[in-house]
């Protein structure tokens, strides 16, 4: 994969130039302190190391500046005759040839290394992002598949217990499909089903058995309906109001979450 931004690995701003100047001054001070010990031996080593370090941390342009300025300082301060530029001898020529050549080779290798390192980091970031996208897509696909299976189970449940349905309640009416659509679908699928034609409340659809439930119990379960078993009072011609065991099941579908209350009879 071609990564065009790999050449832009170096930081931007004036801080890199400040670091380059500090490295240049530090190299000059260290070489000056070692001058009594080294004399005219290896006058360019400190500036070579400074240029390589600046190349590694700050980029190519500051490293070239350190190399050029360091060449002048090394020739002026540490190559005899000291502090004179009007005399050019063999030592000056050797310094002018060897120091730029070695420095350019080294900073070129470091620049290539840093570009490849930055390219590898970019590719790793892209791969990580794509991997996370694939994981997210796979999770969403599994969730949709699970919700679709749950939707089919809910429709089968409604069709199976059509005659014993009391009500269907959407837990989030604003983001859920109208529960009446599922009741209507179940009634269509089950010709013998009995669905009440009364207008649906917000988020609530009534089934065939709701008209037999005591009004207080019906209002109570609508407001506080939770999955599990409930005991409601049903109207009986012979016994008046009698308690009936009911069960509430919860379904999480692609259209939202629903609670279905039915009798166990």
Oligomer: single chain
Order of helices and strands: HHHHHEHEHEEE
Low-confidence stretches: 188-201
Q: Structural class per helix/strand content? A: alpha+beta
Rg computed from alpha carbons, rounded to a whole number of angstroms:
42 Å
| Average of the residue pLDDT scores | 85
How much of the residues is beta strand, in percent?
15-25%
The geometry reads as rod-shaped
Helix share bin: 55-70%
The strand line-up of the biggest sheet is 2-1-5-4-3
Total discrete domains: 2
Q: In total, how many beta strands?
A: 5
The DSSP helix count reads: 7
Tell me about the biggest sheet? Answer: 5 strands, antiparallel
In whole angstroms, the N-to-C terminal distance is 67 Å
Outline of this structure?
This protein is an alpha+beta fold.
Structure commentary:
It contains 7 helices and 5 strands. The chain has 265 residues and is α+β, with helices and mostly antiparallel strands. It has 2 domains: 126 residues, no CATH class; 103 residues, no CATH class. Strands 2-1-5-4-3 form a 5-stranded antiparallel β-sheet, sandwiched between helices. β3 and β4 form a beta hairpin. α1 runs antiparallel to α3 and α5 packs across α6. The longest helix is centred in the middle third of the chain and has 71 residues. It is rod-shaped. The chain starts with 14 loop residues before the first helix and ends with a strand.
